[in-house]
Amino acid sequence: MKICGLMKLTLLDFPGKVACTVFLGGCNLRCPFCHNAELAFGCCGDEISEEDFFAFLQKRKGVLDGVCVSGGEPLINSEIITLLNKIKSMGYSVKLDTNGCYPQKLKEVIDADACDYIAMDIKNSIAEYAKSVGIEDFDAAAIKKSIELIMNSGIRYEFRTTVVKGLHTAQSINELSQLIKGAERYFIQAFVKSERVPDETLEEFTKNELENLLMVARENVPDAELRGI
Question: The pTM is what?
């Protein structure tokens, strides 16, 4: 398991928990707006061993109560369930971040009761998915399956979309939100320009534009919220 980074404390990533976030290397997508693009290729500037990671968790017992497992895309790792279960065996609640491309592996995680919270990134409407993930022939069938699995899992969850001017429109947010109609949590996240993202020409939405997209999403997911503004 390639652990490419560790945020030792977060009060935001895991709702209701004082947590840390561990970043695993590797991802199947090439989103032009990704803020962790180096992880997609498994590059690890701050790689740590599993031994050191679990030693950290042992020391932080009583201070932290949750662990967010992020990436990259965690579900590309064949030993992901072993990792999640080992974290849970230490008494921590586990949040899994995923892009929804591996519904079979996601089902295995759910069936194994290996996490307590799932956060799935939904990149765009089905019609705009390929452009948004940087893969020309992308098949979004897996995305629909993962949404269904999560919404019927009985596990706490959230869906989220980072919106970027030029990639997202009111129409695409309307079509996207129809996929998750009735979802308990959906966040529209503000894209922030950075030298770290693959496409530096991408632009941010204004606050007013984000609020308009939120109103569109709320037609299908009434409790949708903005995040990161």
Answer: 0.95
